[in-house]
Amino acid sequence: RSFRVGLTKLDGKMDQNLLSFGLDQFDELLKRSDRDVLLHGDIHHDNVLKDGDSWKLIDPHGYIGPQGFDLGAMLRNPYDCFPTSRALRETVDKRIEILNSHLPNERSEIVGWSYVYTLISSLWSFEDHHEVPDQHLKILKILQSMV
Known about the structure:
The protein is mostly helical. The chain has helices at residues 2-7, 16-32, 69-76, 88-102, 107-129, 134-146; strands spanning 36-39, 48-51, 54-57, 63-66.
């Protein structure tokens, strides 16, 4: 929830429509969330390991928040390794489809949390590098069109 306050740092640093939409999504998703859980906070290909017949997640950030938050990390990461042989929209669509087919979450929740997580990742990038990556903006526009 404290992420919402931090997101205001992006005001004037990116398209206001993308930021406002994300803040609205964040508020709506929080209303729909019935309880907070322990989150991993950094699910991506380098933090998912095969262990025999099961899978392990390593390097947790240990946030507390709505269960859906981690969905965004699974969709967006690793953005620097998205296939270049097909359009970015196809990759995002495919990842949404895969998550939707394997998780109990509604598609709108997966898309919404993916949007919010990408916006928060944009904030982290801005804080670290003083810029919002163009790839983040492209992903936000694709996700916004899906809501």
